[in-house]
Design goal:
The protein is α+β, with helices and mostly antiparallel strands. The chain has helices spanning 2-16, 19-22, 32-77, 95-101, 104-124, 144-160, 186-197, 207-215, 267-278; strands at residues 84-92, 128-133, 136-141, 167-175, 177-179, 182-184, 203-206, 237-240, 244-246, 250-252, 254-258. A hairpin with a 2-residue loop joins β5 (177-179) and β6 (182-184). α5 packs antiparallel against α6 (144-160). The termini are far apart.
């Protein structure tokens, strides 16, 4: 617990004294960070008490939410060793190239915008952002249908955003190990490897998640013929990819998740359009 708190507090402290927060970003001066720290010291008598109250408030709300999640997972676990969740990764396309083309303030704006879009989209649809890893967001959701819609919505929002490149999204479903607020296990490994092979703007899902969606009758044109078809607002569609051999996990069947009547992303055209916006 002390290690997790220490890491989180260190990141908060670094953010508080950063040039972006203290209003000194983009001045072009080599001592921006020193000036930012000095500015923070000048403002500390006013800001520190307010920040302390804010941190306590945020901690209490997150503790309340974490307690509710833990109780809900325990109630639904039914003797299983690990909770069954949908775990996803969203990865910005071409971030390494982008980091070489943009100045630091512009790159910081892109990263900040991606974090905002990821958090707002995931939480609005019932998921939770586990962590941001630079150009990648990791999130979880206990509802497979909500997870699928999060993946589609992330791809759509990033495609429409003038500041962001397209994202690749991957979703896997299954039991995960929860420890120190993070998630581990084969499902996490599968999702992290799936996102590497997804095309820009595409959402890949594991065969287990596809089966779960089909069982819940949420896939258009699939499932028992006597089943009621999903409504237009709920319907999802999938397109099979050829089986892939995934490192350490063997041969797996992957699926592209789509909205009905969607032809899916056009990777080369869309990626090109993104870089024109960012150059």
């Amino acid at each position: 617990l002390a290690r997790v708190i220490g890491t989180s507090m260190a990141r908060i402290a670094d953010t508080e004294v950063s040039p972006a927060v203290t209003g000194l970003a983009g001045t072009g001066r080599p001592d921006d960070s020193v000036l930012a720290a000095a500015r923070f010291i000048d403002l500390a008598p006013t800001t520190l008490p307010a920040v302390a109250r804010l941190l306590e408030f945020a901690w209490r709300r997150h503790l309340q939410a974490a307690t509710a999640r833990a109780m809900d997972l325990r109630r639904r676990r039914s003797g299983a060793a690990s909770p069954v969740l949908a775990l996803g990764f969203a990865d910005m396309v071409g971030f390494t190239l982008l980091s070489q083309q943009l100045a630091q303030p512009e790159l910081a704006a892109v990263v900040s915008r991606f974090e905002q879009v990821a958090h707002d989209t995931v939480t609005a649809l019932g998921g939770r952002v586990v962590k941001m890893i630079g150009d990648e967001a990791m999130f979880v959701c206990d509802d497979p249908a909500a997870a699928a819609r999060i993946g589609l919505r992330l791809a759509e929002v990033c495609a429409a955003d003038d500041l962001l490149s397209d994202v690749r999204v991957a979703l896997a479903w299954g039991p995960v190990l929860v420890q120190d607020g993070d998630f581990f296990g084969p499902v996490v490994n599968l999702a992290s490897r799936m996102v590497m092979v997804a095309h820009p703007g595409a959402v890949l899902i594991s065969d287990e998640l596809r089966a779960e969606l089909e069982q819940r009758r949420l896939l258009a044109g699939r499932g028992p013929q006597d089943a009621d078809p999903p409504s237009a607002a709920e319907a999802l569609a999938v397109s099979a990819l050829r089986p892939r051999t995934v490192k350490d996990l063997g041969r797996v069947q992957l699926w592209v998740l789509l909205r009905p009547q969607s032809r899916g992303p056009e990777p080369q055209r869309r990626a090109g359009r993104r870089w024109e916006r960012l150059s």
